[in-house]
Amino acid sequence: MTLKPASVRRIAGRYPFGHAGDIQDAAPGLAPGDVVDVREPGGSLIGRGYFNADGATPLRMLNWDGGDIDLNFYRSRVREALARRAGRIADTNALRVLHAEADGLPGVVADQFGEVLSVQLRNAGVERHRDLILRALREETGATSAFERSDTGERRKEGLELVSGVLWGDVPEKVTFFEDDLTLHFAPMDAQKTGFFLDQRDNRRLMRRLVQPGQPFLDVYSYTGGFSLHAAKAGARSTAIDKDNVALGVLEREARENGVQVGLRWGDALEQLSALEKEKKTFQAVVLDPPTLAKRKDDVPRAKRIFTDGATSALRMLSPGGHLLISTCAHYFRVDDLLDAARVAAGAAQTDAEVVAITYQPADHPHLLSVPESLYLKSILLRKQT
Amino acid sequence: MTLKPASVRRIAGRYPFGHAGDIQDAAPGLAPGDVVDVREPGGSLIGRGYFNADGATPLRMLNWDGGDIDLNFYRSRVREALARRAGRIADTNALRVLHAEADGLPGVVADQFGEVLSVQLRNAGVERHRDLILRALREETGATSAFERSDTGERRKEGLELVSGVLWGDVPEKVTFFEDDLTLHFAPMDAQKTGFFLDQRDNRRLMRRLVQPGQPFLDVYSYTGGFSLHAAKAGARSTAIDKDNVALGVLEREARENGVQVGLRWGDALEQLSALEKEKKTFQAVVLDPPTLAKRKDDVPRAKRIFTDGATSALRMLSPGGHLLISTCAHYFRVDDLLDAARVAAGAAQTDAEVVAITYQPADHPHLLSVPESLYLKSILLRKQT
């Protein structure tokens, strides 16, 4: 297939996604997920990619050298991904080993928990090559068992069914893994997905170091409570707020299995924050880590208001010198948006704060220069003035 | 003095600077640097600040509680600044103890090198209170000697002379300090200022860890060569480029005194980079740390081109898997501008890179939430694809 002249520079410059407007013409009779040669209007080869005329993203580039897309290609990509992570993820046996286009494989996400691999195949291209990809993953990671959780809505846009199940080996009913001194669990085949966000690992450790035994810690939008569990393990009195009762159930069980207690508050985050304010609660550290509030650029102003409201409550309840972490996993919500929201919140709470850190996703969720969207997790750590 | 209605929210929200357009009226007869009560149009007090009708920034806020601006005030500010840094700056005896408005004292900058304090007073307000401020600094830091380097052009805009000289104690002719295993020196009273950028401390350590003995390291816009010296001390073969011959002379002397060698290339950075390319040089790590290229927003496009050209050369000469640090100390040049410049450079160099870190100024140069300008040093660390 041939690109339009205006799109050559961007895609030749390693940006992996081509939309309908980028494509001049494609050979007739291409099936969804076919690997195609991608060419400049003059005919010279740019590289190879998956093509799906019906998909929201018809072109996903795989290479820029025109090499074959075969088992060796997939093995190299997995090997490079493992090399990229080598020595950079410590004190856990749970990490993302393949992060889609950020590891040069658009559509493949794989997380490893000890010997068990969790795989998601997201588009028609990787679906067509599923056998090659799974073989490469199996051989390169050495995982003794694997399961698939390709039950993401994204697949429907590619004309694919949702799929989940065992891929190879004996997948345990309950997978156990560790992060520092926490032992954690999940049931791979539960209909209700209650996962664990690997990408907040470094922030969990950061926050844990900021609380002393006995100090109150608040985890807003806790989900299954990674932050709460870490803080509780450090001796803090953790309180978790979430509106997902199933996630809070998991959190309660994990707390018990790790020999700690976490106070649970079920409900809307902002309402629960107001309630805590009325109860005159104070905290030494607070985490505000909502789910994606800005899926599109248009959502940013609304997301900003929610962050501002949450941060205002949090700053009011924070002890002087205490810390607030505010996190966004939305590509469109930028560090400057977080800072703006926090600044307005500090004004409303009549205080000020030092921005003691600005952090990003960890090394197993790479940020690739050529793919701006691969930077998605951004957090600011504030220390309330004394 | 009274603020205009539209300016109340911003300044009451802890933003410390008021411009001519923010001010509704001021009492007649105020002298440059007088401390004034700052009020809303309705008359209620917002706080206190320095006033200088003729200055580019007529109002600089000092507090938001209306408390007295006396010795106790200055002592508290210095104490708070020291507390803010406690335990956060290690393995050196050189740090910035007061960073102007980011530490709640607009116009006062103080760096401590062991027992010696270096002080800069930048505006008419702090000049009027110089005795109080110096006493507070002397008592709270315990520095046995101090000198003043108030020879910044900023003072002229405030109607002040440039001043430098001994403030108290026996200031040594040559001040010695250390950073990790480097012993460094400067002559406090040299007409030609050849300082050492304390704010790049963490980045120097970051880069040093990325080179092995014998590997080639390139320090572009080296100035007195902090990066080069650290890398050389780690065994790397450092090359430093700068157009400032005096700075290169200091670098040469410091290298000798630390028992290492650094290759020096005097000249324009981009020209020297081209020359190195022609010589077919390769490097394991490169630092691109130009002086402020964007003093105003309008300078950003030009700065971007310089960063892009420099990064293109650097990426071409970088070994696969090698690291490139790109740094900007300009408030107006943002992380996204650095990433954009690097992305264009990677395209031109026909390569790609992982953004392995985005870093900011260290803890002795605080980033205060209420003062967006206090975030000024931003760096991206790239790892060239293998």
Sum this structure up briefly.
Chain A is of the alpha/beta class and 386 residues long. Chain A has helices at residues 5-12, 71-85, 124-128, 130-141, 154-157, 201-208, 226-233, 245-257, 269-278, 300-317, 335-348, and strands at residues 2-3, 17-18, 23-25, 34-39, 45-51, 59-63, 94-99, 108-113, 116-121, 145-150, 163-168, 175-179, 182-186, 216-220, 237-242, 262-266, 283-288, 318-328, 353-360, 378-384. Chain A has 11 helices and 20 strands.
Describe this structure in words.
- Two copies of one chain form a homodimer.
- The first copy, chain A, is of the alpha/beta class.
- Helix content of chain A is 30%, strand content 29%.
- In chain A, strands 16-15-14-17-18-20-19 form a seven-stranded mixed β-sheet, with helices on both faces. A five-stranded mixed β-sheet of chain A has the order 7-8-9-10-11.
- The longest helix of chain A is centred in the C-terminal third of the chain and has 18 residues, at 300-317.
- The mean pLDDT of chain A is 96.
- The interface between A and B is medium-sized, with 34 and 34 residues.
SSE arrangement:
The structure is a homodimer of 386-residue chains.
Chain A (H helix, E strand, L loop, with lengths): L1 E2 L1 H8 L4 E2 L4 E3 L8 E6 L5 E7 L7 E5 L7 H15 L8 E6 L8 E6 L2 E6 L2 H5 L1 H12 L3 E6 L3 H4 L5 E6 L6 E5 L2 E5 L14 H8 L7 E5 L5 H8 L3 E6 L2 H13 L4 E5 L2 H10 L4 E6 L11 H18 E11 L6 H14 L4 E8 L17 E7 L2
Helix pairs in contact in A: 2-4, 6-7, 9-10, 10-11
| Secondary structure: number of strands of chain A | 20
Low-confidence stretches of chain A: none
Mean pLDDT of chain A: 96
Distance between the terminal alpha carbons of chain A, to the nearest Å?
62 Å
Overall helicity of chain A: 25-40%
- The tally of helices of chain A reads 11
| Backbone shape of chain A | globular
